[in-house]
Recover the amino acids of this structure.
């Protein structure tokens, strides 16, 4: 691998710290069993490759560019950050940082604007991981005046010539990414690892909500928990549901209703009042607007 990579503890012991990182991933992310299993497999491959190199067993270095596919809110960015940490721990990246971008960060709006934008992003990402969300928007063949092709060509060149100092992770909806690869075979040939992120089920989303509230210093009482389970059932059946992202948005709105309710008697609010979300804070959602006898804010 790149001789400029700084030595780490993992350089002497390829397995050092990897189990801990994977344990953190398992603890911090609810569900996603197939994703966690695939990340563990990739980490094992890299650790074994490092051990082989330590014994003088030569071979082609593993390709590290990846594609994460799945619906919004399924943890793609979070897993990319964890992957950056694993690569750094094993000595496959100098810095271990993640630079997350979209088309707007790479593609300019006039001639001569795209190349410097793309190169600046690549400069920031060197030594770590470049995460490109909704990567299929990079190039729009239906628009003959689109400047995305220039960004694509620069990215392909760097992915090939500087692959020892930069890992690129493309992300987006699975069907759209498949069409993107069909139209851009250069990308398809450089991506070795395809990881599909499944949607969460209701129980997993409930657990995610509880973890989010815990980190924010709130909790659901028993009635609120039952109400939020009903909320999830209804919201998941509606369009534009974004998994954990939609859960976070729903909790933010519940906190607003909680604050409005508590504010009227804030002087007498104790710790329990200030931290407890009640059923009425959930049931005021428009998701329940068809329920009879439910008042809505």
């Amino acid at each position: 691998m790149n001789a400029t990579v700084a030595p780490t503890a993992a350089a002497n012991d390829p397995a050092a710290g990897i189990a801990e990182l994977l344990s953190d991933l398992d603890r911090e992310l609810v569900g996603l069993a197939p994703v966690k299993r695939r990340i563990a497999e990739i980490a094992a491959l890299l650790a074994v490759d490092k051990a082989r190199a330590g014994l003088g067993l030569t071979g082609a270095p593993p390709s590290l560019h990846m594609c994460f596919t799945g619906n919004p809110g399924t943890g793609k960015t979070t897993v990319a950050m964890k992957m950056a940490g694993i690569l750094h721990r094993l000595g496959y990246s100098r810095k271990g940082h993640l630079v997350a971008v979209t088309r707007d960060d790479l593609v300019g709006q006039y001639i001569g604007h795209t190349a410097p934008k793309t190169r600046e992003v690549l400069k920031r990402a060197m030594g770590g991981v470049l995460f490109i969300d909704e990567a299929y928007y990079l190039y729009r063949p239906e628009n003959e005046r689109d400047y995305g092709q220039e960004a694509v060509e620069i990215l392909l060149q760097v992915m090939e010539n500087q692959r020892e100092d930069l890992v690129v992770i493309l992300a987006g909806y699975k069907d759209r990414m498949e069409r993107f690869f069909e139209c851009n075979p250069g990308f398809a040939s450089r991506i070795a690892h395809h990881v599909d992120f499944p949607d969460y089920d209701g129980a997993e989303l409930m657990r995610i909500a509880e973890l989010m509230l815990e980190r924010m210093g709130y909790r659901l009482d028993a009635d609120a928990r039952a109400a939020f389970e009903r909320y999830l059932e209804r919201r998941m059946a509606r369009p534009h549901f974004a998994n954990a992202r939609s859960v976070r948005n729903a909790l933010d709105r519940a906190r607003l209703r909680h604050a409005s309710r508590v504010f009227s008697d804030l002087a007498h609010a104790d710790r329990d009042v200030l931290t407890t979300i009640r059923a009425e804070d959930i049931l005021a959602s428009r998701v329940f607007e068809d329920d009879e006898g439910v008042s809505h804010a």
About this structure: Confidence is low (pLDDT under 50) at residues 1-11, 292-297. The longest strand covers residues 167-172.
